[in-house]
Amino acid sequence: MIDIKKKFRTKADKEAAEIKMLLKENGDRPVEEVVVSQLYQGMRGITSIVSEVSLLDPLDGIKFRGYTIAELQEKLPKAQGGTEPLPEGLFYLMLIGELPTEEEVKVISKALADRSNIPEHVFKTIDALPISAHPMTQFVTGIMALQTESLFAKAYSEGINKKDYWDPIFEDALNLIARLPYIAAYVYSRKYRNGAPLKSDKSLDWAANFALLLGYTERDFLKLMRLYMTIHADHEGGNVSAHATHLVGSALSDPYLSFAAGMNGLAGPLHGLANQEVIKWIFEMLKTLGTDTPSKEQIAQYAKDTLASGKVIPGYGHGVLRNTDPRFLAQKAFAEANMPQDKLVQTVWHIFEVVPEILAATGKVKNPWPNVDAHSGALLVHFGMKEYEFYTVLFGVSRSLGVMANMCWSRALGFALERPKSITTKAIKQWLDEGAKKGAL
Ligand code: NMX
Ligand code: MLT
Predict the structure, then answer these.
(1) Close Cβ partners of 357 (under 8 Å, ≥ 6 residues apart)
(2) What are phi and psi of 203, to 5 degrees?
């Protein structure tokens, strides 16, 4: 681990020097034009954040340090006898910027296993919530309770030099990633398994141990968890969970506080909660239609009725993507290989065949194609995890890999407090009037 940390510092020093030069030579150059409508449309398309660990292409989807998901599936180390990449390897790639060796992945797996102890008060804090509390509420409460362990917060209160911020941030990031599966599994057991004690095996890789903690031992479920934890890890810096983590972190809030903020964003139905909404929508459809094998015509009518009642079709559309999400396709390929006859999975595929055309016909939906959330639930249901309110917690555990790697970079590069300018409609009108008078607009 010491070597990986040193490697990170060396890479960060080099990059910091390059950024300094880039700013010296190009700091005044305009990036792009921002039009008035973008201010009212969630800043869509405004390039304004630097995140080094992944980049989203509207057509090709996410690339982690330049590698697509298909490339990661081929190039990242796998568990013995496994078919899917180890998410620890992706974390290494995001952190260091190079593909890891099997040995380096083992070092990360072991470091995470060694750091997974959780103080008792965290569980007691979760226990103070009613069982009925949403799993995301319980998960975030656990993360907040764990903030007592922040090494960065301690170091800051003791007067750490700003040049050294990255070091306790790095340690906190690793500790948090190591501990999250235990908090998530505790919430799952508490809410759905009568508080059955958690079983773990620290010799396993991070995702496989997480599966075990959740009480799932089937080999194919372990494979699914490795895939799931890899594909949900990051989606460049502007999505709500990554951006919220980054924003809060820019105030030098520690990784626990920052990640909790990101998770509160992930818990929204237009973002990560969409994975529960998808399965809920499908289950309601099956119930309404009285069948578990709806025809494409029935699905099409149900989708049209959903739109007519002023609701979104969950799992479809995206703020940046303009094509079928490769994360959807990776899950589809997993299902084709492992459960092609599953009725629910087939329904997901039939929805994929009919919904894009219906959304495109509205004339307003910019991306009628499925996103990552359209497929994930059906895979989980196949293995018996039907408690769909828990799905966003799984997404959150995976997202820690990307946002924590990014946070290490942000502090190592000394990124500034994020504080964009806001404006009133009155001020915009004034500016437009003055521009028109001067003939400038
Ligand atoms: N079903 C119905 N209407 C939609 C959908 C959809 N799946 N997607 C977009 N629209 C509507 C959208 O509500 C907006 O309507 P209005 O003008 O009446 O406000 C219009 O189409 C234009 O929206 P877009 O510019 O295409 O999408 P935007 O960038 O604003 O929003 C999402 C992106 C992801 C929020 C949107 O597509 C959506 O609500 N999808 C369903 C929820 C979902 O699957 N979210 C998960 C995203 C992935 N993730 O994990 O975070
Ligand atoms: C994500 O994985 O964060 C989602 O696809 C949302 C996004 O990128 O905006």
Answers:
(1) 368
(2) -85, -10
Contact 243, 49 (CB under 8 A): yes
Q: At what angle do helices 391-412 and 240-250 cross, to 10 degrees?
A: 40
Contact 225, 379 (CB under 8 A): no
Choosing from 49, 234, 245, 318 the residue with most ligand 2 atoms within 8 A of its CB, the one to mutate for a pocket test is 318
Helical residues (DSSP H) of 35-165, grouped into ranges: 36-40, 69-75, 87-96, 102-114, 120-127, 135-146, 151-157
> Which residue of the set 234, 373, 375, 382 is catalytic?
373
* Higher pLDDT, residue 80 or 367: 367
pTM reported for the whole predicted model = 0.98
Residue ranges lining ligand 2, Cβ < 6 Å: 235, 239, 271, 319-320, 371-372
Q: Are 210 and 185 in contact (CB under 8 A)?
A: yes
Q: Which of 318, 325, 375, 382 is catalytic?
A: 318
Query: How many Cβ atoms are within 10 Å of 58's Cβ, its own excluded?
Result: 13
64 phi, psi to nearest 5 deg: -95, 115
Confidence of residue 441 (pLDDT cuts 50, 70, 90): low
Task: Tell me if residue 318 is catalytic.
Answer: yes
Answer yes or no: are the C-beta atoms of 180 and 397 closer than 8 Å. yes
> Phi then psi for 399, rounded to 5 degrees?
-60, -25
Q: What local confidence, expressed as pLDDT, does residue 439 receive?
A: 78
Report DSSP state, residue 417: P
314 lines ligand 1 (CB under 6 A): yes
